[in-house]
Amino acid sequence: MRGKVLVGFVGMVVGLLATVGGAMAYDMPSVNLGFTSFLDGGPPSGPGFYYSQYVQYYESDSLKNAQGDAALPDGADENLDVWISMSQFIYQSDQPVFLGGKWGVNVMIPVVGLDMSYAMDAPFPEDNGSGLGDVLVGPFIQWDPIMGANGPKFMHRIELQVTFPTGKYDSDKELNPGSNTYTFNPYWAFTAFVTPKLTVSGRLHYLYNFKNDDPNDGLTGVTETRAGDAFHANFTTAYEVIPGRLRLGLNGYYLNQYQDTEYDGKRIDGTAEKVFAIGPGGVLHLGKDDNLLVNVYFESGAENRTEGNRYNVRYVHHF
């Protein structure tokens, strides 16, 4: 029995964004794994309109099972390539609404390209090509930085993200640009200035998945599925090596699906997903209103999902 695979964006901040499916699980919609990173606790230039463009490439030649071992037989030689182009539109107001925090709204629109290949002809997961991913909308509250004698000390934000099933989806295929399900994915993001040059940032998400009422046809007799709830986080630390211009450091992410997936309302043991990734990255301040972020991630410890490498570039412009 072939499981379903959902590849789409849920995650701002979408992130999201590559998941694949097999007989044992791989049911979770994509989330923000590594899309956002350095100085994530606040907008770089204060209130106003922002446009961000993300380009992410994900590669994997290893599908993992619940024990973290190879999910496919020897000789399958699986190879997954995922390209994601995501446009993000942000408005940050200057109007306090809650405990001094100022309201804003975030909209993310991804386009996803999938290519899955094998060295043998067998009923393995198939891709549904390229198309629009799942659109994300998130109202948020951003607090002004807490200032110290030598500059900002701490800044943070909460956002209530909802992903809509707008993406291309075909139940005959296991790998789709869209997930065919809604998700609720609130988060808290922060940046702490340990010193004026050294920063630590994080984004902590809780993921609630709604039902997919048109699951993959390989799930014989199953009429609906719901991926289990999950926790996922992005984390970074960076040091300013060129004042006002360049910060370099480490970036990573962690995903832990702590509930197994439901098939027709029943949880199936051993279907939860997990992965950890870390790698180098940096942010280049091109000017007051323009920033370029680059991230590389090397995954490990994957369970019930692919394990590979992720490369991310993000350009941010403030109008």
Short description:
With 319 residues, the chain is an all-beta fold. It has strands at residues 48-63, 79-98, 101-117, 130-132, 136-142, 146-148, 151-159, 162-163, 183-184, 187-193, 198-209, 225-226, 230-242, 246-257, 262-263, 266-267, 274-287, 290-303, 306-318. It is globular, with a radius of gyration of 19 Å.
Taking all Cα atoms into account, the compactness measure Rg is: 19 Å
User: Could you say how many structural domains there are in total?
Assistant: 1
Query: Which strand-content bin applies to the residues?
Result: over 45%
SSE series: EEEEEEEEEEEEEEEEEEE
- CATH class assignment: Mainly Beta
Output the CATH homologous superfamily. monomeric porin ompg
Mean pLDDT: 90
| CATH-level-2 architecture | Beta Barrel
CATH topology name: Porin
How many helices in DSSP terms?
Answer: 0
Q: Structural class, please?
A: mainly beta
- What general form does the structure show? globular
Q: Report on the biggest sheet.
A: 16 strands, antiparallel
Q: How many E-type strands?
A: 19
Alpha carbon gap, first and last residue: 51 Å
InterPro entries: FApF
List the topology elements:
Blueprint: E1 48-63, E2 79-98, E3 101-117, E4 130-132, E5 136-142, E6 146-148, E7 151-159, E8 162-163, E9 183-184, E10 187-193, E11 198-209, E12 225-226, E13 230-242, E14 246-257, E15 262-263, E16 266-267, E17 274-287, E18 290-303, E19 306-318
Antiparallel strand pairs: 1-2, 1-19, 2-3, 3-4, 3-5, 5-7, 5-8, 6-7, 7-10, 8-9, 9-11, 10-11, 11-13, 12-15, 13-14, 14-17, 15-16, 17-18, 18-19
